[in-house]
Amino acid sequence: MPLLVMKFGGTSVADLARIKNAAEKVKREVERGHEVIVIVSAMSGKTNELVGWVEQTSPMFDAREYDAVVSSGENVTAGLMSLTLQEMDVPARSWQGWQVPVQTTSAHSTARIEDIPRANIDAKFAEGMKVAVIAGFQGLSPEGRITTLGRGGSDTTAVAFAAAFDAIRCDIYTDVDGVYTTDPRIEDKARKLDKIAFEEMLELASLGAKVLQTRSVELAMRYKVRLRVLSSFEDNDEHSGTLVCDEEDIMEQNVVSGIAYQRDEAKMTLISVADRPGIAAAIFGPLASAGVNVDMIVQNISEEGRTDMTFSCPVNQVARAQKAMEDARTNGDINFHELVADTDVAKISVVGIGMRSHAGVASKMFDALAKEGINIKVITTSEIKISVLIDRKYMELAVQALHDAFGLEHAA
Ligand code: ASP
Ligand code: MG
């Protein structure tokens, strides 16, 4: 029997009525002849509440007990979902992570799934059970303790089950109806994409992160799990939502698929550092150790053995970056004239696998920004993405201008 994984996020199981609504969607798939594995999140807001309780009780909390508390929200929704299905005459059974068991590493609060043995669940399917309901976001460490997978981790649970059980697809039910060409709150002509490639979804993380945990997309790409994002508040058919899939499954596509943005970026420039072998390591090593997520890096032209080094990072890490650089200077590891921080920048990226085979995307992007009088401060490119830093006050305008320039309101 074809097996489908259906994952319901917090807003889709926020109360008993919504759990019933979700259960009806599951029942419909059973009636269509599927076996179903349902992955549930905690009711919306629940995990935040649990995290808050832990922090109030013990600011320097023991991560094992954090996981014991924070994983509990999913236990409630798993049991309630199974009961709701049973009330609808659908044979269902729930599992907590340890019962499967979902074997993970021992990195509490950020554990990774290592293996999902099928035997327990397969045995129940063989007995006539139609739906296995799994508490998402949790697993079991080699030491026999409950672990959690990091915030948003039930998406990753869903993809891992889809891979382990050779599911025909992994449907992620959420409160939006798919992935858009850009943020509809900024550009009202933003269009829902029917399909998007895994790589593009990863690059569009700033748009998609609210929809899918990044790690779940990486896992889906590795195991070629077809992921579908769709709304639990609408009636859906085969064509609803957005399919996140292998690029070979996409026939027609615009060269550019989407415009992403990152509002709170900072541009940092070290003025006049010695241009010598090892200088980049001496700068970026301490930044990494200080937990600064460096994104773009540009080394400028050198003159008389000195050069300027520019990098970007999130605005809320500027103080940390400054301290790391001052410390490195005090230690004598690096030497610079000045560290200039521009904290009023935003990053805009155009993303599309079509760029691999089409020239001219960069010039079109720069043209569109120039027409609006927007100055570009830093440019970086990858095979399927071009990113620029601009003044934050032009962010919305830039997104709109680029959406228009690349004709994203119309499908290919
Ligand atoms: N409930 C967990 C969280 O809020 C896991 C999830 O919903 O994916 O992060
Ligand atoms: Mg989520």
Summarize the structure.
Its EC number is 2.7.2.4. This protein has 13 helices and 18 strands.
Question: What does this protein look like?
Answer:
Helix 1 packs across helix 4 and helix 12 (361-371) packs across helix 13. The protein is an alpha/beta fold and 412 residues long. It has helices spanning 16-31, 46-57, 63-70, 72-87, 119-126, 154-164, 198-203, 205-208, 214-223, 279-289, 318-330, 361-371, 395-405, and strands at residues 3-8, 35-40, 92-95, 103-104, 113-115, 131-135, 138-140, 146-148, 169-174, 195-197, 227-231, 242-245, 258-274, 297-299, 306-314, 338-351, 378-382, 385-391. The protein contains 13 helices and 18 strands. The model has no long low-confidence stretch (mean pLDDT 95). The strands form four sheets. It has an eight-stranded mixed β-sheet, sandwiched between helices. The chain has a six-stranded antiparallel β-sheet with strand order 14-15-13-16-18-17. Strands 4-5 form a two-stranded antiparallel ribbon. Helix content is 33%, strand content 25%. The relative contact order is 0.10. Helix 1 links the parallel strand 1 and strand 2. It folds into two domains: 3-175, 3-Layer(aba) Sandwich (Carbamate kinase), CATH 3.40.1160.10; 259-405, VC0802-like, CATH 3.30.2130. Magnesium ion binds next to loops.
